[in-house]
Amino acid sequence: MEKQGVRLQGVGVGQGLALGPVIRMPDPLPEPADVPPSLDAEAEKARASAALATTAALIRHRGERAGGTAKDVLDSQAAMVEDPTLSDDVAARIDAGKSAERAVFEGFATFRDLLVGMGGYLAERATDLDDISQRVRATLSGLPMPGVPESERPFVLFAHDLAPADTALLDLDKVIALVTAEGGPTSHTAILAREKSIVAIVGASGAMDVADDSVVIVDAAAGIVTVSPTPEEIAAVQSELESRAGEVPIPLAPGALADGTPIPLLANLGSAEGAREAIEHGAEGVGLFRTEFLFLDATTAPTVAEQQEHYTKLLSAFPGRKVVVRMLDAGADKPLSFMNVAPEENPALGLRGLRALRANEQILRDQLTALANADAASEADLWVMAPMVSTVEETRYFTRLAREAGLKTAGVMVEVPSSALLADRILADADFASIGTNDLTQYTLAADRLLGSVAAFQDPWHPAVLRLVGEVGRAGAALGKPVGICGEAAADPLLAVILVGLGATSLSMSPSALVGVRAELRRFTLAQAHEFAQLALSANSANEARAAVLEASSALQHTNPTEKVE
Ligand code: PEP
Ligand code: MG
User: For residue 279, how far is its CA from the centre of ligand 1 (angstroms)?
Assistant: First the structure.
C-alpha cells in the first residue's frame, strides 16, 4: 500500500484539499485470553492498580483540555475508574488466578451488566464503561488508546467511521483532513465534516490498509486520496493550497435566479457557534438547526433553561431573519442516550425522529417551551419543525403541540416517501415543509446512508427522489405554502437549480456551500430551471439525469452567457 502514487477512491465532502501524514484510529481491543498470568498475583495487582490510576489521570487531562460539558463527562468517567468497588473487584479476580488484563476486562463487564440491569440513567453509562475498560487495557498492554488519536503535529485522520460525538470533538488545529472507509455522502460524519469545513473523503475502502505516518494528498473535489505522492504531486498541491489561501472572496448577495426570482439561501447549523461563519458566507437565515447535535453526549434530557440559553444565542444572531429549528432528531445514526433506550434491529426504521419525541412527550414539550421562551426574548422569525414525519396524523399532532406552546410557524420535514406522496394533505395542516433529501434518498432507494458499500445508491439525482420532491413542490405551490430543501442535495450547485425547478422556494446548506450555489442559481431563469427539472425527471438513473442536465446547461451557457441579476 505504501508504493508511490496509490490512489483510493471515495466520496468527497466539499472541495477541500489537504496534504499531511496519516494517523489511523486504532481498532477496538479484542477480548483478552483467559490464560494464567506470567507474573505472581501481587505483581499483577500492582500492574492493574497503576493502569487504573494512569487511565484516570489521562481522562482528567483530556477533560481539562476539552473544557465545557466534555470536561464534566470526562471527570465523571475518571471517577468511575477510581471507584474502589471496581479496583477491589479487579484485585479479587487476580487473587483468583486471572491476569490483570483479564481481571480488568471481567470487572468492567460485570459493572456494565449491573448498570444495564438497573436501567434508566445508570444504564446509559454502560457504554462509558466499555470505553474505559478499553483504555485501561490499552494502558496495561502499552497499546494505542482507542478513540480519536492525539498528536502534537497536524495529521490526516484515517478511521473506519467516526461516531457523531467523535467528529464534533475533533481538534481542528490538528486534524487537517478526515478519511473514512465507511459512510456515505450524507452520513453524519460527512455532514459534520462539511459543517466544520474539514477536508474529508468518506467511503474510501482500503483506507485502513494505509500505514501510520504515510504522507497522503486528500482531494475532496475528486474524492481521491493519493498515498505517498511523488515530489511533483506534492509541489502541485502546495502551490494550489497557497493560491487558494490568497483567493479574493466573491461579493455576497441574496439568493436569486437570473430572472430575479428570489430563492433565499439559508444555513444548516448544529450550534449557535456556527452563526458568525454562516453570516460571513451570506446566509439569509437558518434553514435547519439540528438541535440534537447539542446533546449527543448528554446522558439526561436537557432542561428547559439549558436549551433556552442555546436557542436564545442562536436567535439573537439572526434578528429579523428566518430561523428554522428542528426538534431533537434522535435515533439511528444520531442516538441520544436519554431518548433511544431500547435496542433495535433496524434503527433507521425504528422509534426515531418525531416517533421518539412522541414516546417522550415531556421532552418534546420542554423543547417547545424553551423555543417559545427564546422566541419571546429575540427578534428572529422562528419556525419550528418535526423530523421524520410519516403520516398526516403525526403532522396534526406536532402542529397542535407547537401551537399550544405559542409557536406561530410549525412545519414538518419530508424525509419519508409516505409524506412526500401525501404532501397535499400534510401541507393542509402544516405551515411549511422542509425536504430532508438525505433521509428521503435513503428511504426511497432502500440504502443505508451510513454504509459505504451502498453509497452509490445515496444519490439525490435519482429520478425517483426527484419525482417525490416534485410532489411536495406541487402541493406547496397549490396551497401557497413554502417548501424548503435542507438535505445535502441543496449544496450541489446544479442540483439546487433542479430542486428550484421542482418547486423548492428556499435552499439550506452548510455555509461553505453557499457561495457555489448562489453563483449557479444566477446563471439560470425559473423557466430554464423547470426545463432542467423535466429533463432530470425523464432520465432512468441518477447518472443519466446528471449528464442530461449538465449537457443542457452547458449548451445554454454558450448561447445565453450575459443574463445576470444586478
Ligand atoms: C435529511 O435527512 O436530509 C436531513 C436534513 O436531516 P439529517 O441529515 O439530519 O437526518
Ligand atoms: Mg434526516
Answer: 22
Alpha helices in 210-257 (DSSP H): 231-245
Task: Assess whether the C-beta atom of 415 lies below 6 angstroms from ligand 1.
Answer: yes
292 pocket-lining for ligand 1 (C-beta < 6 Å): no
User: Taking the domains of the chain in order of start, what are their residue ranges?
Assistant: 6-26+147-245, 41-141, 265-559
| Predicted pLDDT at 480 | 98
290 lines ligand 1 (CB under 6 A): yes
With a cut of 50, which residues of the chain have pLDDT below it?
A: 561-566
The pLDDT of residue 564 is: 43
Q: Among all residues, which ones are annotated catalytic? A: 188, 486
Nearest CA to ligand 1 atom 10: 439
The verdict on domain 265-559 having CATH code 3.20.20.60 is yes
> Which residues contact residue 425 at a Cβ distance below 8 angstroms, ignoring those fewer than 6 apart?
392
Give the Cα separation of 48 and 52 in Å (integer).
6
Question: How much is the pLDDT for 126?
Answer: 67
User: Residues with Cβ within 5 Å of ion ligand 2?
Assistant: 415, 436, 439
Cα distances from 3 to residues 43, 163, 228, 414, in angstroms, run: 45, 31, 7, 47
**Angle, helix 463-479 to helix 526-537, in steps of 10 degrees:** 140
- The architecture of the domain spanning 6-26+147-245 is 3-Layer(bba) Sandwich (3.50)
Q: Is 333 in the pocket of ligand 1 (CB under 6 A)?
A: no
- For the chain, the first-to-last Cα distance in angstroms comes to 52
Partnered with residue 7 across adjacent β-strands are: 226
CB atoms within 10 A of CB 262: 14
Which of 413, 458, 510 to mutate to test ligand 1, by most ligand atoms within 8 A of the CB atom?
413
Whole-number Å distance, alpha carbon 508 to ligand 1 midpoint, is 11
What are the strands, taking DSSP E only, across 312-421?
Answer: 322-326, 381-386, 410-414
The CB density around residue 58, as the number of other CB atoms within 10 Å, is 19
Q: Which fold has domain 41-141?
A: Enzyme I; Chain A, domain 2 (1.10.274)
pLDDT at 565: 41
